[in-house]
Amino acid sequence: MKFFLDTADLKEIEKAAATGLLDGVTTNPSLVAKTGMKFEQLIVRICELVDGPISAEVISTNAPGMIDEGRKLAAIHKNVVIKLPLTQEGLKACKTLSFEGKRTNVTLCFTPLQALMAAKAGATYISPFVGRLDDIGQDGMDLIQDIRTIYKNYGYKTEILVASVRHLEHLLTAAKMGADVATIPYKVFEQTLAHPLTESGLARFLKDWETSQKA
Ligand code: E4P
Fold first, then answer.
1. Does this model's pTM top 0.85?
2. Which residue of the set 2, 11, 34, 83 is catalytic?
């Protein structure tokens, strides 16, 4: 399973990348806005920090605009993945950019049929937003299971990138379901490694060692 970091914060990306466990990064316009940096400069910096797929989102709402932006973003670095919204225009752009051999991440997916359409448009990744579905009283993880079933039925190669992950339970369920990728906030990335029994167990080992070796 691949782990992407869902952030545009360079410090967080640097810390996660230093573990050697980070496979890529996803950004979105809201995350970019928080940094106060110019978009292109930010993407260049992220590409310098992480050697993996870096999703950069277009802001045009029509296909020609998205295609133009997507080509420019892809030219920044070989690792840039063009992020497109799951709209008719977004899927038109996806089809064209995929045909050109560019990698795409279709975002803001909330239903299995939207995911099916994105796969038909040749998306490299589909990003179902599980947390935002939970927020409106649906079980976001059901969507992942449905997409898995549909993609398996027809042999689609589009990778399921579980997005809007809020906590460890989302991540664990995604892993059990066999999702290809999860994009997670830095807080969740840290939580995957932490357990109080690991901490207290290590403290005890070190204390016992010190006592025995001093004697
Ligand atoms: C996905 O690529 C999005 O950036 C992200 O996962 C959205 O998450 P949110 O619902 O926590 O904003």
1. yes
2. 83
